[in-house]
Amino acid sequence: MGCAPQHEGRWRMPRPNSRRLRCHMQITGVRECGAAVQESLILRRPAGASKDEAGVRHQAQQAQSLPASRQERTLLSLVARLQWATMITNTNKSRFENDYEMAQKYRLPEEFVTDRFLVKRIIPSDAQAIFDGWNSDPEVTKYLTWKPHAELRQTLEAAERSHCEWEAGTSFPAVICLRHQPSELVGRVDARPAGHKVSYGWLIRRDRWGDGIASEVIRWAVDHALSHPLIFRTEASCDVMNGASARVMEKAGMTKEAFLQRYLLHPNISDVPRDAFLYSKVR
Ligand SMILES: CC(C)(COP(=O)(O)OP(=O)(O)OC[C@H]1O[C@@H](n2cnc3c(N)ncnc32)[C@H](O)[C@@H]1OP(=O)(O)O)[C@@H](O)C(=O)NCCC(=O)NCCS
């Protein structure tokens, strides 16, 4: 019968005017068909099925006591409603599946600790410390893709963008703080997931260079990403002249994979794209 459950919980509903349903009614009798509609509703009813489905089931019960011609009309209209209810249920299901997929996607934790550092999501009130610490420093920004900030307002706007990116899950910009003095911001790390990959960016406040901060934090972030079931590759790139950054990647367990010509635009040293090294760690 057209209303019968299909394998693996999938259902194929007859069209209200389908020849198959009419044939079935002629062969088995309208009463039996009503029972089948009811049965299918009972069997397929998922937890939290719409009120409409419950209403259809009730009417299918009622229809069995009607004269045959009215039973047929009623059943046909019920099947139409049932199809609609099925469509709604399927829509809800796909919404649920989307939520599930979202929950499965890789995210950097809002806060995590390494041996010496607390790393936490950037919030707008960090703007002043970020501006003073590195955003306005031409040495720190030398090999970065943006120019140093001249005004606090630029850093504040960037912090607000960071907030939106985190919400959207497109990028996870976080500040690195001293673990035992969390008000002291010493650097920044950005994790950017895309499908089965995560790429990274980082910087450290100039007076803290050479303390092993970047290596410690990037190693943690890379290992965390590769422990996620959907992530198979982590990667980062740096200007060919940025020896410290290349060393950070090695210390974080990545290996040099490629020399990429004209790959990065570093506006603080050149107006044209520059060559870069690509590093990765995969599982
Ligand atoms: C790159 C940067 C993040 C490194 O941070 P850090 O916390 O000082 O890095 P670590 O102390 O963990 O490691 C640095 C390593 O690079 C080495 N290093 C430093 N300068 C170097 C250079 N010019 N060439 C080669 N290696 C260098 C250090 O000796 C150290 O290695 P070691 O521990 O084996 O001696 C920091 O220099 C920085 O903020 N630079 C400006 C921003 C930037 O370039 N970000 C990266 C963009 S891709």
Can you walk through the features of this model?
This protein is of the alpha+beta class and 283 residues long. It folds into two domains: 7-99; 111-282, Aminopeptidase, CATH 3.40.630. It has helices at residues 19-28, 30-44, 51-63, 68-104, 127-135, 152-168, 213-226, 243-251; strands at residues 111-113, 117-121, 172-178, 181-194, 197-204, 233-239, 255-264, 274-282. The protein has an eight-stranded mixed beta sheet, sandwiched between helices. Helix 2 (30-44) packs antiparallel against helix 3 (51-63), helix 5 (127-135) crosses helix 6 and helix 7 (213-226) crosses helix 8 (243-251). The longest helix is centred in the first third of the chain and has 37 residues, at 68-104. Residues 140, 143-144, 202-204, 209-215, 238, 242-245, 247-248, 251 line the site of coenzyme A (COA).
What's the main sheet like?
A: 8 strands, mixed
What is the succession of H and E elements?
HHHHEEHHEEEHEHEE
Low-confidence stretches: 1-17, 41-50
Strand order of the largest sheet: 1-2-3-4-5-6-8-7
Counting DSSP H or I runs of 4 or more residues, the number of helices is 8
Bound small-molecule species: coenzyme A
Question: What is the average per-residue confidence, as pLDDT, rounded to a whole number?
Answer: 81
Give the helix/strand class.
alpha+beta
CATH 2nd-level architecture of the largest domain: 3-Layer(aba) Sandwich
CATH class of the largest domain: Alpha Beta
Based on DSSP secondary structure assignment, what is the total number of beta strands?
8
Q: What's the alpha carbon Rg, rounded to whole Å?
A: 30 Å
Please, what is the CATH homologous superfamily of the largest domain?
Answer: Gcn5-related N-acetyltransferase (GNAT)
In what range is the share of β-strand residues?
15-25%
The tally of domains stands at 2
Query: Might you state the CATH topology name of the largest domain?
Result: Aminopeptidase
Globular, elongated, flat, extended or rod-shaped: what is the shape? elongated
End-to-end separation = 50 Å
Helical content (DSSP H or I, runs of 4+): 40-55%
